[in-house]
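Re: Re: ligand-bound prediction request (bumping)

Still looking for help on this. To restate: I need the protein modeled with DOR bound, output as structure tokens. Inputs repeated here so nobody has to scroll up.
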Amino acid sequence: MEITLKAPLDMHLHLRDGDMLRLTAPLSAAHFAGAVVMPNLVPPVKGIASLGAYAERVRTAIEEVDGNCAFAHYMTLFFRPYSEEELAAARETEVFFGIKLYPAGVTTNSAGGLVDWSAAEPTLKCMEELGIPLLVHGESHGFVMDREAEFLPIYRRLAEHYPKLSICMEHITTAGALRLLEEHENLCATITLHHLLLTLDDVVGGSMRPHLFCKPIAKREEDREALLEAALSGNPRVMFGSDSAPHPREAKECCGCAAGVFTAPIALPCLAALFAKHDALGRLQAFVSDNACRRYGLTPPQKEITLRDEPMHVPASYRGYGQTVVPLYAGEEIPWRVVKDR
Ligand code: DOR
Ligand code: ZN
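Reply:
Sorry for the wait, this slipped through. Here it is.
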């Protein structure tokens, strides 16, 4: 069996900076036509000049490995109160895609995130008027399994208060988030590969598996099933966003393990295997590209990726530039692989 995907997109990706960027950006660019690049660097990307400079570093990192690689990097700013002038200027910036909002302290490098929602109002209003998408890490500071559920009323309030603002509920992990999605047209959602595959049992139910630890934490089986159903059904407001989040091996295999699952180089083969297993291969194109293109009016570079149901051996780690990152399914065999790209 084979499938050729047109312009697959990763609508939520962490590429980091420096040597880690040099290692990971080409891996995404090899399989995807474009990606929405997260701004949670240290320090975060909080201005148009730093966004432009980061975009340039992403481009250079990819070019260093493949000079002919077509890859659209859709860049994001880290949410803070922005003036109307700043937002208008951002919108004119070709590589700019939207603004990512992190409540302060909910995840990796989010200490400078939002504390006071009332201070966010003028910026949100202006984003609504200018048509700038808002991407949200929707977790509270409550009990780890309830954080997304506790954030849903905030999503609801945002959706009602700013009816023309395009709001993306990032990396949703619960059936409740999917129910909310159906209530408001201005909400959409990204779903990761790992949340389609894993539950909390995989992370800590046996021996603890640090490479599966991420935020939001994987939830219950009924949540995983609801996410899978939404992805497989071709729900037009659900898009693939890997949230592939590389951390150096030593930051994962230690006391105080960093949150993040590194999936970029195996995401498409794993998705093809999953959709094929559920007899839904025909709807993979919608999940990995068409829904996002329609929602945001994107025209990514032409790129076709063919996948076949032949086994791929996943490397024990990806190495380069002094960095080592361990992917999901490290050292294992997965049933599909990429056979050609152009
Ligand atoms: O697991 C995660 N890792 N979740 C996030 O929200 C951030 C990400 C990262 O940047 O490592
Ligand atoms: Zn993320």
